[in-house]
Structures are given as structure tokens and as C-alpha cells.
Amino acid sequence: MSIDLLLQSIAHSFPVREANLDGGKLSGLSLNDGVVLSSSFRNSSFARGSLSGMMFQDCDFSGASFADACFEECTFVSCRADSSDSRRARFAQSTFTSSDFGHSNFSEARFTQTTAMRCILTHTILRGATISQSAIMDCELSNIVFDGATLTNAAITQADLRSARFAGMRCDTILFSECDLSDRDLRGLMLARANLSGAKLDRTNLSGVDLSSSILAGASLIGADLSSAVAPNTLFVGADLRSATLRNANLSQCVFADARLDGCDLSGTTMGMAVFTRASAKSASFAGADMSYALMHHAKVNGSDFSGSRFLRTDFHCASTEGSLFVAQDGRALQTVPERAVAELYDASRVIPFNGAS
Fold first, then answer.
1. How far apart are CA 107 and CA 87, in angstroms?
2. Cα dihedral sign for 332, 324, 328, 266?
3. pLDDT per residue over 109-122, tens digit each?
4. Which of 151, 257, 301, 356 is the most exposed place for a label (fewest CB within 10 A)?
5. What Cα–Cα distance (Å) separates residue 358 from each residue in 343, 349, 352, 354?
């Protein structure tokens, strides 16, 4: 098929099937509202082209060039585009599904309201790219490069990011849900307002990182280093922080409800108004921590060290403190209120009505 026939077919809304335009020169062309199926464009050039409303399925773009091209409302399904060049390209409201972009170059590309699902992005370069209101979902991302990229209101989910590169990456309001970032050094990132729910961050270095107002609900942070982290108003609900280091971190108004902090180092932290309801923090160190107005309701802190801590209406209602060390603390804590403890055991379903009354 010639390029002219391709353009005529698209112009007349006629689906293009099994076309072979390997090495074709389509630079600067406009393709609008067309459907292309099972066609080959290996090593072709779409550089500086404009594609709008195009749908490509089972097409091969291996080695093709999309440099400086503009894509709007385009769809790629089960396509191959490995080793392709999309430097400085712009993608808006587009979708990539089950496609292969491995070893491709998207340096300085711009993505807006664009989604990649179940794609191969191994060794893909996104250096200096801008990703806004977009999502990368359940994709293969080994050795992907995000150096210098800017991610705003973006989502990366269910991805193994242990080999990803993040040097100089800037992000704001990003979702890293169920991603594996274990054993990574993330000290250079700013993760304020990030959603890391269910993420794996075991032994990850987050020391000094800004985690303000972030969500780490259900995340695994076993042995992680969050020393001197700035994390006020952060949710650690149900998180696993066993043996983690949070020394000198700002944890004011954080929520650790149902979290596991056994063996955790929380010495010197600022945790005013923090919530540890039903948390397990056995053999943890709270030495020198500011625990003003912190809630320790029903927490298990057996064998923990509270020496030198600052208490101001710190509430240990029904907390388990057997074997804990309280020495030279500043201020006094609130203890269990018996009447309240009894009321909390009330279960209406177990009440037997008097004289059979309902």
C-alpha cells in the first residue's frame, strides 16, 4: 500500500488492513479519525506529524520515529513500538493497551490525560518528560528511566520499580499504589501528598524525605529508614513499620491506627496529636519524643521506652504498657477510664431482652 492510498482510506473512513509501509516517510502528515489494523510501519517516520482520533491495533512500529509528533485521542492496542523514538512528542487523552514500548525513547515528551495499561516499558527512557493527569497501570517497568521527569497528579500502580531510575524526578500528588520500591534510596524525591497505599518499601531509605499529607495505608516499611522525615498529617493506617527507624521525624497529627511498629525507633520524634489506636509498638523506643495530645488508645506498647518523653494529655486509655520504661518524662499522661472501658465492651447483639421484650 502506498502512503497516498493510506491517506485516502483514512479520509474516507475506510479501515486499513495489513498495510506494509516499512521505512515509509510520513513526516509532517496529518492522520485523523482512522482505523489501522494488523499493519507494519517498521522504521517509518511520523516525525512532526499530527495524529488525532486514530486507532491502531496489532500494528508494528518497531524502530519508528515519532519525534516532535502530536497525538490526541489516539489508541494503540496490542502494538509493537520497541526501540522507537518519541522524543519531544505530545500525547493528550490517548491510550496504550497491551503494547510493547521497550527500549523506546520518550525524552522530553509530554503526556496529558493519557493511560498505559499492561504495556512493556522495560529500559524505556522518560528523561525530562512531563506526565500530568496520566496513569501507568500494571506495566513492566524494569530499568525504566524517569531522571528529571515531572509527574503531577499521575499514577503508577502494581509496578516493580526496584530497578527504576528517579534521579532529579519531581512529583506532586502521585499515586504509587501497590508498587515495589524495596531497598531503594529515595532521599532525592519529594513525596508530599503521595499515595503509597499497599506499596512495598521494606528497607527503603526515606530519610529526610517530605511525606507531608501522604497516604501509606497498608504499606510495608519493614526496616525502612524514615529518620528526620517530614511527614505531618500522613496516614500509616495498618502499615507495617517493624524495626523501622523514624528517629527525629516530624509525625505530628499522623495516624498509625492498627499499624505494627514493634521494635521501631521513634526517639526524638515530634508526634503531637498523633493517633496510635490499636497499634502494636512493642519494644519500641519513644525516648525524648514529643507526644503531646497523642492518642494511644488500646495500643500495645509492652516493653517500650518512654524515658524523657514529653506528655501533655497523652491518652493511654486501655493501653498495654507492661514492662515499659517511664523515666524522667515531662508532664503526665491520661490513664484508663474504667467506666469508658466497660462501655466499650458493650455489645448490643449479646443483650438478652428482659421478660422477652423486643
1. 5
2. negative
3. 999 999 999 999 99
4. 356
5. 21, 12, 9, 8
Residue from 229, 217, 233 nearest 268 by CA: 229
Task: State the number of CA atoms in the 13 A half-sphere of 206 facing the CB.
Answer: 30
Q: State the Cα–Cα distance between residues 267 and 290, nearest whole angstrom.
A: 9
Cell 521494635 -> residue: 263
How crowded is residue 328: how many other Cβ atoms within 10 Å of its Cβ? 11
Predicted confidence at residue 54, as pLDDT, reads 96
Q: Residue 81's closest CA among 28, 127, 120, 26?
A: 120
- Model-level pTM greater than 0.90? no
Place of cell 517530614: 230
Beta strands in 73-167 (DSSP E): 75-77, 90-92, 95-97, 110-112, 115-117, 130-132, 135-137, 150-152, 155-157
* Helix or strand holding residue 11 (H, E): helix 3-11
Least confident of 189-193, 240-244, 245-249, 257-261: 189-193
Amino acid 310: pLDDT: 96
At 324, the pLDDT band (50, 70, 90 cuts) reads very high
In the three-class reduction of DSSP (H, G, I as helix; E, B as strand; rest coil), residue 5 is classed as helix
CA distance 182 to 240: 13
Q: What is the pLDDT of residue 254?
A: 97
DSSP string, 242-289: TT-B-TT-B-TT-B-TT-B-TT-B-TT-B-TT-B-TT-B-TT-B-TT-
Does position 313 have pLDDT exceeding 60, yes or no? yes
